[in-house]
Amino acid sequence: MLRECGVRDIRINYLCADTLRVPRDTLAEIIIAWRDGFSEPIGRHSRFSEAEARERMDDIIDTINNPDGYFVWLVPVITAINPE
Q1: How far is CA 37 from the centre of its chain?
Q2: In 61-84, which positions are buried (b, 16+ CB within 10 angstroms) versus exposed (e)?
Q3: Lowest CB count within 10 Å: 10, 28, 30, 76, which one?
Q4: How confident is the model at residue 84 (pLDDT cuts 50, 70, 90)?
Q5: Whole-angstrom Cα distance, residue 9 to residue 34?
């Protein structure tokens, strides 16, 4: 799709946020905010109910808060050059 837009030098890098690099409470707060903000729309627009979405995010939060747990969030960062 990017090539169709005429851009060049397309690159994809990944930002890694995990429980080794980011404070656990920071990661947990992000997922708590997502749970509180997105459980209802997930329940409306996916195969998961709102309760199931909350439960799955609560599981992630529990893993983050467990000193023996590991959580990783890989964020693709896509860049390209617009020749115009």
Answers
A1: 13
A2: bebbeeeeeebeeeeeeeeeeeee
A3: 76
A4: confident
A5: 33
Average per-residue pLDDT in the chain?
A: 96
- Read off φ and ψ for residue 62, nearest 5 degrees: -60, -40
- Using the structure block, give the residue that is written with the tokens 């429980």: 19
Helix axis angle for 24-45 and 50-65, nearest 10°, is 170
41 — pLDDT class (breaks 50, 70, 90): very high
| Separation of alpha carbons 26 and 73, rounded Å | 13
